TrEMBL record:
InterPro entries: AA/rel_permease1. The lineage of its organism: Bacteria, Bacillati, Actinomycetota, Actinomycetes, Kineosporiales. It comes from the Bacteria. It is a multi-pass membrane protein. It holds the Pfam family AA_permease_2. The chain crosses the membrane at residues 43-60, 66-90, 102-120, 167-186, 193-213, 233-252, 264-289, 309-335, 360-383, 389-411, 423-440, 446-464. This is Amino acid permease. Its main location: membrane. GO terms for molecular function: amino acid transmembrane transporter activity. It comes from Kineosporia babensis.
Amino acid sequence: MTTTPVPGGGGLGSRLFARRSLDSLVAEPEGGGLKRAVGPIQLTALGIGAVIGTGIFVVIGEGAALAGPAVVLSFVLAALACAFSALSYAELASSIPVSGSAYTYTYVTLGELVAFIIGWDLVLEYGVSVAGIAVGWGGNLNAFLDSALGWELPEAIAHSPEDGGVFNLPAVLIVLAITAVLITGVRESARVNLVMVVIKMSILVFFIVIAFANFNSGNLTPFAPEGQDGVVSAAAVIFFAFIGFDAISTGSEEARNPKRDLPVAILSSLAICTVFYVLVSLGAVGLASTSQLSGSDAPLAAALDEGAGITWAAALLSFGALVAITSVCLVILFGQTRIFYAMCRDGLLPRELARVNPRFGTPALLTVILGGLISILAALVPLSEIVKLVNIGTLFAFVLVNAGVIILKYTRPDFPRSYRVPLNPLLPLLGIGFAVYLMLDLPATTWWRFAIWLVLGLVIYFAYGYRNSRLRN
């Protein structure tokens, strides 16, 4: 495959911002690429698997504390904020069906340096996210064992040193188990995820049915005690429960029919998650009062217990959260391996790591290395503060993906697209606006940590990536 920079001068600036050739990138991925093995159902399940995690089991209580019963509207508003970026992801994923997601899209639209920055950012975002999710999985495992069997794992092997333990064994085991599944192949990974999605969605359907059968309309008064400000504040919190649909785009190269299936999977997964979020939140506020929901660490279980008298609800919801976290962990780690793989294949990181295992059709060596590092991180390293970097990294990617759609509209209007963002550039600009608004609301410490990580990335880029880039060699 040939990779050519956009014509321009030979100065340092033109080399730093040289762009991948869109036509050659789409025509033939380096090394033959990954195995195209998944269809629209599996891709949609990947999106649902990444989005519906512990957020739906916990965030309703946080949102209800801010907006009251109007938290239902907060879910709709948060979904709308994500929808603008989802439209942009859908266009780029179908037009550039190659691994790398926002990293690859940025390489085509904004050039190599910006692409490396966003790729480096996403490597951190996904890796820290998996480690944090794994730690949460261990906590939910103990909650399930306590509610179902009345006993818990010893503190020494159930918590990291940050939380008074010695070694978080459950977090390590779940990361290693998911790593093993990912190595075996994308089709197998997608099947495992599909099973988990069916289980957690079934539990949510059970909650919705019970909630509406015992609905108390009196709980909806007053509907919005804090007015519009409360609804917007709750939407800002709930927004992060929708993040994850972008992970579908990391599997572009493994979709059997990416031009058709990727837009369908991205948009339908977000739509399905929104419907479930709205129904679950409406059922929750109809079952229990705002104070009951906001005063519980497990608001859905509390709603079933106090509103419907189902005392064994805690065990069921704990199991649902456990399955939900597992599927999120699988999809996010899958996404990280594909982004890292794309960066290695482009020579910005060691190309040896981009080898595809001929038996499994996956970057097995890279998956083992990343899974091992993340398991160590989950077992030993304090995560309470660094996990905040996940939010800013995701929002930064949203900004660049929306910007990429606008740029391609004017620089390559002739390039064939199976899906186009309507009202471009208006809707992508709205996506940028929502992302920037939420980024500015993050604390200064998050910005400083983000800047330090990017500086480290720039050092690696100029020491290694710039000299070994396939674009110049």
